[in-house]
Amino acid sequence: MKYTIIFVLLSLLPLTTQASTDISMPLAEDEGWAIIAIYSKGYAEKIELSGSGFGNNHTFGPLDYSQEFQIVKLKAGKYSWERVIKKVGENGRQKSDFSHLDLNFEITAGNLNYVGLFMYESNGSTFSAKILNRTSIILSILKQDFPQYLKKYDVVNGIYPSDRYIDFFLNNSKAILAGE
Questions:
Q1: How many domains does the chain have?
Q2: Average pLDDT of span 158-162
Q3: Whole-angstrom Cα distance, residue 72 to residue 113?
Q4: Do residues 15 and 69 touch, judged by C-beta distance below 8 A?
Q5: Structural contact between residues 61 and 45, judged by C-beta atoms closer than 8 angstroms
Q6: Which of 7, 15, 26, 117 makes an SS bond possible with 132, Cβ 3.0 to 4.6 Å?
């Protein structure tokens, strides 16, 4: 029931789907693809993602009660959703820092990395952030909008590496489509 409600909510909101890097460009030895899925319940001008190594920072947004879905080329290593920056008034900015939260994932080189759904909520004065494990929903969007990545790369779980659900989902959905 819980998954049905989230799926319905996600399907009603505007969805931005774009590949931020061309799949025809080969990955370097130390790079992998990340499936970035973000849901914002409130305004977020910039959502900052920090990776290990100098200058390995990425921003997404602006989002306002909306979603973003991208396939992004990232260096292999550990990443963390760090903060959201919101515009306040004409020239002000408010930062919501997440360094105390467990919003981490890892990118494995040469693979398509599932990194969960980053969810940000704000009512103007308070905020929260979390990574939700919405594997079936995200992989369904991926299969529909970016099948070329699934044909070329193995999907690995960047938040729960030992979880075998991705293999189960992808293998069973292929069997269902083939009529087995």
A1: 1
A2: 95
A3: 10
A4: yes
A5: yes
A6: 117
Residues 97-106 have a mean pLDDT of 94
Residue 86 binned pLDDT confidence (cut-offs 50, 70, 90): confident
Q: Is the peptide bond before 161 cis (omega within 30 degrees of 0)?
A: no
Residue pointed to by tokens 């819980």: 2
Reduce the DSSP state of residue 123 to 3 states and report it.
Answer: coil
Prediction pTM value: 0.83
- How far, in Å, CA of 49 to CA of 129, rounded? 13
132 close to 159: Cβ distance less than 8 angstroms:
no
| Contact between 83 and 98 (Cβ < 8 Å) | yes
Q: What is the mean predicted confidence (pLDDT) over 20-47? A: 89
SS3 of 162, please? coil
What's the pLDDT at 54? 87
74 CB-side CA count, 13 A: 31
Instruction: Kindly tell me if the per-residue pLDDT of 16 is higher than 80.
Output: no
Closest by CA to 105, choosing from 129, 79, 86, is 79
SS3 content of the chain, % helix, strand, coil (to 5): 25, 45, 30
What's the token pair of residue 74? 């990232």
Nearest partner of 57 among 87, 79, 90, 88, judged by Cα: 79
